[in-house]
Amino acid sequence: METTARNERDEGLIQRFAAGDEAAFHAFFALHDPSLRRYVRSMVSSGAVVDDILQETWMAVLSAAESFQPGNARGWLFSIARRHTARHFRKRAGEPSQMETLETLGLNAGWGQSFGDDLAAAHDLRKALAHLDEDTREILVLRDVEGFTNEEAAEALGLSLPATKSRLHRARLALMAELTPEVNHA
Amino acid sequence: MPEDREVAGIRCMQVLAELGDYIDGELASERRSQIDAHLEGCTWCAQFGGRYANVVGQLQASREEIAPTLNAELLWKARGAV
């Protein structure tokens, strides 16, 4: 579904369940709970807390719906999820990639190296994601796995659009570095 | 350390900086054409760009379909209790 249409649908559902329409909540829940679950699962180290975080998130969504400001429904939803997930974040695996220059990130990712075009296996990709610090992993999950627009990701993360795009690019390079261990000399 | 070359009027470092926007289709057409020309003349950047696009594609394809496990009806009934 096209982004604008999807956002209008979601805003309409939020406004309806804020006004007491239970069916609208059920519809909104069915649309977004799987995505929230994937996000939370990718961000926390213990699977045992996933349901707790999701329950807290959905209760907070129900409480906050009346004050929802139309504009970016999915960003709003995930900003709530993020607040409830943050205290359970996995420990950082390393220094944030923001501290490194783009050139260093590129070199670690294999820029200027010769390698084949073989793709990472799915388990390698998951393992590599798990090795990244949470800020890096989070933008990749929202933007590339869940298919958020840059605007939606920016709203969810509380970042400006340029900062979101910069974090995304750096995160992709950091992931490539994880998938290219033979040239990862950071 | 690889060489930062100028090809088609753009240096490799500039291509690296704009690669995300290029892959995401967020560049103006003129800039996109400039980078296309660089990639045609620079094996180094073309290979790296291909790998970058592959990794993004892998991420997009990695999404698992899962069903909700919480009960929306119970959540609705519990609203206002917290």
**Termini of chain A, distance in Å?**
40 Å
What are the segments of chain A in which pLDDT stays under 50 over at least 5 consecutive residues? none
> How many β-strand runs of chain A?
0
Find the structural class of chain B using helix and strand composition.
mainly alpha
Biggest sheet descriptor of chain B: 2 strands, antiparallel
What is the number of helices of chain B? Answer: 4
Distance separating the two termini of chain B: 57 Å
The share of residues in extended strands of chain A comes to under 5%
Shape category of chain A? elongated
Order of helices and strands of chain B: EEHHHH
**Dominant shape of chain B:** elongated
Q: Number of DSSP helices of chain A?
A: 9
Mean pLDDT of chain A: 88
Overall pLDDT of chain B: 91
Radius of gyration of chain A: 18 Å
Kindly list the characteristics that best describe this protein.
heterodimer, A: 186 residues, mainly alpha, 9 helices, 66% helix, elongated, B: 82 residues, two-stranded antiparallel sheet, 4 helices, 62% helix
How are the SSEs placed, and which strands pair?
The complex is a heterodimer of chains A (186) and B (82).
Chain A: H1 3-18, H2 22-43, H3 50-64, H4 73-86, H5 102-108, H6 122-131, H7 134-145, H8 150-157, H9 161-179
Chain B: E1 6-7, E2 10-11, H1 12-23, H2 29-41, H3 43-61, H4 72-78
Antiparallel strand pairs in B: 1-2
Helix pairs in contact in B: 1-3, 2-3
Structural notes for this entry:
The complex is a heterodimer of chains A (186) and B (82). Chain A is built from 9 helices and no strands. Chain A is an all-alpha fold. Helix content of chain B is 62%, strand content 5%. Chain B contains 4 helices and 2 strands. A two-stranded antiparallel sheet of chain B has the order 1-2.
